[in-house]
Amino acid sequence: MSRYYDDKRRSINVSPAIKIFLATLAIMLVVGLPTLFIMKNIKNNHASNHGFLTDAWEDIPEAGYAMNAAVTDEESAKKAMEVAEEDKDYTHKIGTYDDECVTIGFAGDILFDENYAVGDKFKRNGDTAEGIVGSSLLEKMRGVDIMMINNEFPYSDRGEPTPGKTYTFRARPETAGILTSMGADIVSLANNHAYDYGEDALVDSFDHIRDQDIVYAGAGNNIEEASHPVYYITESGMKIAFICATQIERLDHPDTKGATEDSPGVFRCFNGELLVDKIKEAREKNAYVIVFVHWGTESATEIDYLQRDQAKEIADAGANLIIGDHPHVLQKIDYVDDVPVVYSLGNFIFNSKTLDTGMVITTLHKNGAVNLQFVPAIQSGCCVNEAEGEEKSRILNWMAGISPGVHIDEKGYISP
Predict the structure, then answer these.
(1) Is residue 65 scored above 60 in pLDDT?
(2) SS3 string of the chain?
(3) How much is the average pLDDT of 174-196?
């Protein structure tokens, strides 16, 4: 480019190629910047409508395909919307933030018993999750379409502690409102503490949870109720089934009573025959089947052989996703015959210990794709907060290290 200066004004002699470049740049500035601004506003509005960051909606490596979660034609949509007579009391029709997908959040163990440090903190905090569960976690819990938590105790003023049991839990009935403040929609009672204060306290729990318009699964007034899948049907025609069961205690005569044909209790799956039947039943009804199972060895980051064997059994029966709890610590994420298995979510807000924990957010798309994201968090001092910065990277790297069968990226997205 040649340049010369005139006494009256400064000029630049520009070649034709540079003129074309400058014209193109001007068009980009005039047209491109407003377009980017509009797109950014659309994305921000989308995030606001869903209650959490749009990262959860990105096209990421898919974690397999939910074969019968998709409603791709009129016939399958009609089948998904059908509700059998025996399922009417267990089926909930819901709207979703997005017609093309449904989001489901999962968190591990919680405790509201005021005789323990964390329950006492909830009491002093006014029986609300605000200020105990970090704001960004609460935003995610409230923002998903369905939020599920493991409820490791009964709500009651009745009953006596199980004789000889080291730890027995029971929370005041009014503390069930904490679930609502967390954004919970469904809780699992299939665990080894739901029966700590006997039959009366367990039955009271059913009423107090229902009073909060929250669904429970994995326990009931009889085995039919305890083992029955809970169904959610979206307005767009997607059907999701939740089945909750417990391996613990692994005894013929456990402290935590299993429900029978005519007595209350939990859904025990140490013998997995009935669990397999319920999974197959839900699949036949065109549902995406989630099995939330209480299993494993407490405080062990390694899975045990009973988890390994039953994961295979559950996957073979037709489950689409397996979520585990009970060990109180995080365990690996894996795929068993293309079925994602989160072996243990650990504590969510259970005691005063400093422990790594997290949420799992699953997004089921109508086209059959499934996104799975692990959200790292830290329980400490009777609070739980989303991990950020170096701590987030540390937990994600640790989870990736113990999960050789999966890839976990820097945002927590999981793929085979």
Answers:
(1) no
(2) CCEEECCCCEEECCCHHHHHHHHHHHHHHHHHHHHHHHHHHHHHHHHHHHCCCHHHHCCCCCCCECCCCCCCCHHHHHHHHCCCHHHHHHEEEECCCECCEEEEEEEEEECCCCCCHHHHHHHHCCCCCECCECHHHHHHHHHCCEEEEEECCCECCCCCCCCCCCCCCCECHHHHHHHHHHCCCEEECCCCCCCCCHHHHHHHHHHHHHCCCCEEECEECCHHHHHCCEEEEECCCCEEEEEEEECCCCCCCCCCCECCCCCCEECECCCCHHHHHHHHHHHHCCCEEEEEEECCCCCCCCCCHHHHHHHHHHHHHCCCEEEEECCCCECCEEEECCEEEECCECEEECCCCCEEEEEEEEEEECCCEEEEEEEEEEEECCEEEECCHHHHHHHHHHHHHHCCCCEECCCCEEEC
(3) 98
Q: What is the pLDDT of residues 164-173, one digit of tens each?
A: 999 999 999 9
User: Is the domain covering 60-415 a CATH 3.60.21.10 domain?
Assistant: yes
Domain boundaries, the chain: 3-47, 60-415
Q: Can you give the pLDDT at residue 73?
A: 58
Cα separation of 407 and 309, whole Å? Answer: 23
Residue 405 has pLDDT above 90, yes or no: no
Q: How far is CA 194 from CA 111, 162, 201, 238, 352, in A?
A: 11, 11, 8, 31, 21
Q: Which residues pair with 20 in a beta bridge?
A: none
* Encoded tokens for 82: 């059908």
Residue 40 has pLDDT above 50, yes or no: no
Which pLDDT band holds residue 33 (cuts at 50, 70, 90)?
A: very low
Sign of CA dihedral 299, 303, 309, 313: positive
- Strands 321-325, 186-188: pairing is unpaired
Q: What is the mean pLDDT of residues 108-132?
A: 98
Q: Which two tokens stand for residue 92?
A: 């909930």
pLDDT for residue 222 is more than 80: yes
Under the banding of pLDDT at 50, 70 and 90, the label for residue 42 is very low
| Cross-strand bridge partners of residue 291 | 243, 322
pLDDT above 60 (res 158): yes
